[in-house]
Design brief:
Chain A is of the alpha/beta class. Helices cover 44% and strands 16% of the residues of chain A. The first copy, chain A, contains twelve helices and twelve strands. Chain A binds a DNA duplex through α2 and α4.
Chain lengths: 332, 332
DNA sequence: CTGAAAGCGCTTACAG
DNA sequence: CTGAAAGCGCTTACAG
């Protein structure tokens, strides 16, 4: 900027004014400055600017895995909202590892992000308290944080799951299985709860042998199906607690050429092209990302935290049941 | 850092040494400093550090759309390599818009990224020349840049396409259609070329009515299929030039209950669960992202550009033909 | 409308 | 092993 000023024969401050699009600059000086900028290939140094301003114009986005379709759609929605606010996005994958989540979050804070959106992997987030008190707003998505109070955007997991089971009940099923992710995972727990509630409301006793909770894998899915279909009173329908499990179940059913009424939690691409089409309880990752980003920028604009700030919000986003065939197979 | 120094009763420079993990610090002083850091909730300001060091420890990643599975997998691979180098990733979606690409790329440069990975949307990249001369290495992925010489990582589009057609030829087909993306798109052009080459090698005349080049949409796909299947000598097989087209074609074929031997360029999730399974020429977005990131960090380590630097490299990554049924339907 | 001075929070280069 | 001074490239606060 000093060089540009020298080349244009003006002061550094005038260059600053031009670069920042301030209006109160003489037209001749402005064009002289612009010319020098073009000639020297000048590009303002954001680090210096951030250092002085204290605001970085960036936010951090911490996901489980950027490559997972659910999170990549969420990610794009965050980016689009950030763009409206002239803000860039740092993205990182925690790979469901609490330490990695912490490292990334603190690295973002060291870069003085204006705010943080986190899909929590760990179960304790007190490490963020100093940062939040220092004025970095944090919004959690998909799962609530542990140990601290903060804004969080959730899917209506319990309601969605309940609705999926009710759909199967409406088609005459009474033996309905559930295969979900590991019980430590918040969403897995909520979805199981919805399953139980729906059964209870229908006056059907909960049966242990119809429920599996484990990280999705081909082996665990095969085992779960053995148990579901093997006994004296096999399941005639199944709610899959997440899309990885759904895919795993579909593969295993195809291998066995077994048919089973099926509802998947979370949509999968090409679900409509399967035979039969896959009925799902669809989440809306785009809406979740947008809601998280909107809330975050609201907090950023709100200024300092503390007792004056609005209390933490929990936003629950609804699901949509999409019938495509697999969930409408009638009970034998 | 000044506050930490005061609290610990040492100089600012000693704090700096501790924070940076330098070894030559007395153990007592070190622990005093660490205690003050914990107590004050100190976190080093990366902007100040970057300003002084000139290196930001970030790279920019510019994709067409973070939400697209191909790019989100590529993105994760880039992140993993960046992680090995202690580097964070700024990600942005150009949405296939040249202006947006330019804006994002220059915003990244203003943030003094150490390097840039770009899936080009625009056809001219001379705007990057000043940045590259200023020492920011740029690696292009998936498509080559326009107007400038630079490193680029490509899929073997032509070879893959050729192989897909040869596969269909081997199953007895002679009337093979091609539906690809708009001809301006580099990959679309290369894949069409591969299609032509394969036909030529087999001594089959190129037929205009069997080829469609348009952005994938339900309407354009329906039209294309009308043309392919309508004439006196309809196509018996089809190569789809990209995954969006493939999905669109599958939907349209399902609607018409028409079967057609089909090979898709680029894999799609659940392709194995369709009836018949979807045969594809698979790309390897993870390998592309990793290769791009590796090359970029090599350039970053290499230092200043100019005549001493190694000349631009083009790396071509092979495809894999995955037969799953749809491509093995024999010609009538 | 224009500019000179101070300072953001670090690291670099140097002295002891 | 420890520290005092200068400076990275901007913006802020102020004076004219």
């Amino acid at each position: 900027m000093k060089d540009v000023a020298a080349a244009a024969g003006v002061s550094l401050k005038t260059v600053s004014r031009v670069v920042n699009g301030e209006s109160n600059v003489n037209d001749d000086l402005r064009s002289a400055v612009l010319e020098s900028i073009a000639q020297l290939g000048f590009r303002r140094n954001a680090s210096a600017r951030e250092l002085r301003q204290g605001r970085s114009g960036t936010i951090g986005l911490l996901l489980e895995d950027v490559a997972d379709p659910f999170y990549s759609i969420l990610s794009r929605a965050v980016e689009d909202v950030a763009r409206e606010h002239g803000t860039m996005v740092f993205a990182g994958s925690s790979a469901e590892d609490a330490d990695r989540e912490r490292d990334l979050a603190l690295a973002f804070c060291e870069r003085r992000v204006d705010g943080l959106i986190i899909v929590p992997a760990g179960s304790s987030h007190s490490y963020l308290l100093p940062e939040m008190q220092a004025g970095i707003p944090v919004v959690f998505v998909d799962r609530p944080p542990g140990d601290i109070e903060a804004d969080v955007i959730l899917t209506d997991n319990r309601g969605g799951s309940r609705r999926g089971v009710e759909h199967l009940l409406a088609h005459g099923h009474r033996r309905i299985g559930f295969i979900g992710d590991a019980p430590e995972i918040y969403t897995a727990g909520e979805r199981l709860r919805g399953y139980r509630e729906a059964l209870e409301s229908a006056g059907i006793a909960f049966a242990d042998e119809l429920v599996t909770q484990a990280p999705p894998s081909a082996a665990s899915t095969a085992e779960a199906l053995d148990r579901l279909l093997g006994g004296p009173s096999p399941a005639t329908a199944l709610l899959c607690g997440n899309s990885r499990t759904t895919v795993s179940v579909l593969r295993e059913l195809a291998r066995r050429s077994t048919r089973l009424a099926l509802v998947g939690f979370d949509d999968v691409e090409l679900g409509d092209l399967l035979q039969p089409g896959l009925t799902v309880v669809a989440q809306d990752p785009g809406a979740m990302g947008a809601a998280a980003a909107r809330l975050l920028f609201q907090r950023i604009a709100g200024g300092s935290p503390g007792p004056t700030a609005a209390p933490p919000q929990t936003v629950t986003i609804g699901t949509r049941l999409i019938p495509r065939g697999s969930g409408e197979l009638a009970a034998p």
